[in-house]
Design goal:
The protein is α/β, with parallel strands linked by helices and 226 residues long. The protein has one domain: Alpha-Beta Barrel (TIM Barrel), CATH 3.20.20. The chain is 32% helix and 19% strand. The chain is built from eight helices and eight strands; from the N terminus they run E-H-E-H-E-H-E-H-E-E-H-E-H-E-H-H. It is globular and about 45 Å long.
Length: 226
């Protein structure tokens, strides 16, 4: 199994929305590798969260990749708005209503990286046809729609299967892990093939400097992999 160096992607869903700019800066100053924007439409999931204006407003704050995670029923209609807002990567769900191939094509036509997201209950076979067409495979290790859930460990064997399929095809494709990432779970998730870890509650429950948390997460991932 080929697994890259663990990356930490700060999920702003768990940040203080009243001071979102400051919260983004805290993550950036701590050395997070990317910022993760959870976009919910009230239909694909019950909650409604942020839209492209959040990314546009925070784009000047950092040069790291900005990831838009579209938990929406019709992602095809949203690609242009999020690309123009400054998203470097746009991830959508294979379970959404639109044809995955068409959404990937639209994202690439907009000059952005495409991410494909897989829910805990969805068979791994659903994403296999697209592994050589995307820039990130995002595996949900919780049920999408709200932060603070515990990681579903039953998802990890399926993640390892997907990592093996990626390696067999010789594709340079990182796996993202979204949900329940903390010091006690990141090691097992990394060992199962995860590389890009979406960290929300574990970061933003802390006050002040987030650098020690980010460093501890990276260390915990590597310790279990050794």
């Amino acid at each position: 199994m080929s697994i890259g160096t663990p990356q930490i992607s700060a999920s702003l869903l768990n940040a203080d929305f009243a001071r979102l700019g400051d919260e983004a800066v805290r993550a950036l100053d701590a050395g997070c590798d990317s910022l993760h924007f959870d976009v919910m439409d009230g239909h694909f999931v019950e909650a409604i969260t942020m839209g492209p204006n959040a990314i546009r407003s925070l784009r000047p704050y950092g040069s790291v990749p900005y990831h838009a995670h579209l938990m929406v029923s019709r992602p095809l209609s949203q690609v242009t708005a999020f690309a123009e807002a400054g998203s470097d990567l746009i991830a959508f769900h294979v379970e959404a209503d639109d044809d995955p191939g068409a959404v990937i094509d639209a994202i690439h036509a907009a000059g952005r990286g495409a991410g494909l997201t897989l829910n805990p209950e969805t068979a791994a076979d659903a994403v296999l046809p697209f592994l050589d067409r995307i820039e990130l495979l995002l595996v949900m290790t919780v049920h999408p729609g709200r932060g603070g859930q515990e990681l579903i460990h039953d998802v990890l064997p399926r993640m390892a299967f997907l990592r093996d399929q990626i390696d067999r095809r010789g594709v340079d494709l990182p796996i993202g892990v979204d949900g329940g990432v903390n010091l006690g779970t990141i090691g097992a998730a990394h060992a199962a093939g995860g590389e890009v870890f979406v960290a929300g509650s574990v970061l933003y429950r802390e006050q002040g400097d987030l650098a020690p948390v980010v460093a501890a997460l990276r260390a915990a991932a590597l310790e279990d992999a050794e």
